[in-house]
Specification:
This protein has helices at 16-28, 46-58, 73-79, 93-101, 117-129, 136-147; strands at 6-11, 32-35, 64-69, 87-89, 107-111. Strand 4 (87-89), helix 4 and strand 5 form a beta-alpha-beta unit. Helix 1 packs across helix 5 (117-129), helix 2 crosses helix 3 and helix 4 packs parallel to helix 5. It has six helices and five strands, in the order E-H-E-H-E-H-E-H-E-H-H. Helices cover 45% and strands 16% of the residues. The chain has a five-stranded parallel sheet with strand order 2-1-3-5-4, with helices on both faces. The protein has one domain: Sugar-phosphate isomerase, RpiB/LacA/LacB (Ribose 5-phosphate Isomerase B, Chain: A, 3-Layer(aba) Sandwich), CATH 3.40.1400.10. With 149 residues, the protein is α/β, with parallel strands linked by helices. The structure holds D-ribose (RB5). D-ribose is lined by residues 12, 14, 46, 69-71, 73-74.
């Protein structure tokens, strides 16, 4: 388990309230939530917010990132373009556990138009408390990293 307790959060306009609720929840659980917005409801562009959060994780400032948009799909795609990022989009607890245990995901994407806040918080809990399994999964993650070279 990482000693870095910093978790960056970002979203587009579709998920501001969900993001703020997750930030409060993980703070109560002892994580340091780095919420980089946005805070106002104007329509905005998810690739910029996905990239901004991904850079905080890729450069080591934050251990994990949680990013949200309407579906989770677009912001996940943007984050995964940043070298060093492995971001899974999850709508259930099992997938969140597996993307940590098998894929060593360092970012989690979710959709505020797909799941409710209670489910999102459950998924975040599973993501942040599941360790990478290593072993054969390590071999496969190294193969993903090699694709970036
Ligand atoms: C915004 O309307 C919506 O396209 C965005 O939040 C997200 O769902 C994209 O993947």
């Amino acid at each position: 388990m990482t000693t870095n307790k910093r978790v960056v959060l970002s979203s587009d306009h579709a998920a501001i309230e969900m993001r703020q609720e997750i930030a409060a929840h993980i703070t109560a659980k002892g994580w340091e939530a780095i919420d980089i917005g946005p805070t106002t409801p104007e329509s905005t562009h998810y690739p910029a917010h996905g990239e901004a959060a991904a850079r905080r994780v890729a450069d080591g400032d934050c251990a994990f990132g949680i990013i949200l948009c309407g579906t989770g799909q677009g912001i996940m795609m943007a984050a995964n373009k940043v070298k060093g990022i492995r971001c899974g989009v999850c709508s259930d607890v099992f997938s969140a556990q597996m993307t940590r245990e098998h894929n060593d995901a360092n970012m989690l994407a979710m959709g505020a138009r797909v799941i409710d806040n209670a489910k999102a918080i459950e998924i975040v809990g599973a993501f942040l408390t599941t360790d990478f399994g290593g072993g054969r999964h390590g071999t496969r993650v190294e193969m993903i990293k090699a694709l970036e070279a």
